[in-house]
Amino acid sequence: MFDLGWTEMVIIGVVALIVVGPKELPGLFRAVGQMVGKARGMAREFSRAMEAAADEAGVKEIDRTIRAATRPMQYGADRLREAALGDRPGRTRSAAPIPPAGTPIEGGRPAPSAGTATSALAQQRAEERARRLEEAAARGAARPPPAAPVQAAQAPAPAPAAPATPPATPKDETAA
Q1: Cα angle for residues 85, 89, 94 (degrees, 5° grid)
Q2: Contact 68, 78 (CB under 8 A)
Q3: pLDDT digits (tens, 9 = 90+) for 36-85
Q4: pTM given for the model
């Protein structure tokens, strides 16, 4: 709460010993301890009252929904667990026995084998993947080839050399 270390508590104890005196110090510490206990009790009671008010308002259910939305994998696992356990926690419901493949079910047809459905799905996905690859290759072939890189411009021509002597200026004839 206040994050007091041992050194701070020792300093407080020494100051209290000097200010209050050795005779009154145990009574003071007892009173401080009782006040701290009462403050903790009041805080605990306030916390319980706030939780009860939140329960009445349905805040816990909203909190559960928000947390479930932020963690979809955990939410799915929780929903699965709830479905498996039913209303009674700690007890699972018995599942209906699964008939072996090839035995007739209610409609009189034999149950489909797991291998047929799985292989059909795998075949469908492989065909779809091949179709996507062909479409991507066709799009790549339809694009025009990239333009040839532009050659860098040649170095600029050197600047003309500066004359060695400054250009002659017309002399003022009156000064001569």
Answers
A1: 35
A2: yes
A3: 999 999 999 999 999 888 888 888 788 888 877 777 666 667 777 877 78
A4: 0.32
